[in-house]
Amino acid sequence: MRLGIGTGSTAEEFVRLLAESVADGLRVQGVPTSERTARLCLELGVPLFSLDDLPELDLTVDGADEVDASLGLIKGGGGALLREKIVAAASARMIVIADESKFVDMLGGFPLPIEVVRFGLASTRIALERLASRLSLSGEIVQRSSKDGPYVTDCGNYILDASFGRIPDAKALATGLAGMPGVVEHGLFLSMADVAIIASPAGVRQISAPRIEQELSST
């Protein structure tokens, strides 16, 4: 299997389980979504390739910062949203793994990561604030930092985290962000996940995207 491997604490638990299966003979070709994931895979013996080596993948397994009932996602808390979205888009299917605390009735409680180029940062922030105002969204937009200064992604960009609280029209926001100069990518993953596996103290449940439910009902 050509497998996209996600980033973050939940994805890392998946990597550890995957490595055990690889050690038992499972054959996979992994494509990591971040340098952090790549280091862990190499440490645990999961075979890795680049997306240029394997431009079309069978499946991506990744975590999420928020998941709603239609399997809309907010991702990017780990800073890998650009590579995560590229890998997910190159995959025939995407499975999201998360705990119950990540399942929400409306996206936006988790600050939305927006990856931006360094040039014109102040102008990009103003444009983001104007877009938010047009969509009746409010909340602070803060540049992400690290212990060494501004946080820099694996692709050399900055991240602005937008604390909107609730996003009633995620599609309109995604469209506005996609057309904004200076924005490289955003953490709204809409109509990308096929299945979410949600864990809680009561057990594990599986949620399929509406389009998958329609496909199943028509067969």
By CATH reckoning, the class of the largest domain would read Alpha Beta
As residue ranges, the low-confidence spans are: none
Cα shape: globular
Individual helix count = 6
Question: Based on helices, strands and strand pairing, what is the structural class?
Answer: alpha/beta
Following the backbone from N to C, one meets helices and strands in this order, namely EHEHEEEHEEHEEEEHEEEEH
Compute the number of structural domains: 2
Mean pLDDT value: 95
Give the strand order of the largest sheet, numbering strands 1, 2, ... along the chain: 2-1-3-6-14-15
CATH topology (level 3) name of the largest domain: Rossmann fold
- Portion of residues within helices: 25-40%
CATH architectural category of the largest domain: 3-Layer(aba) Sandwich
Rg estimate, integer Å: 18 Å
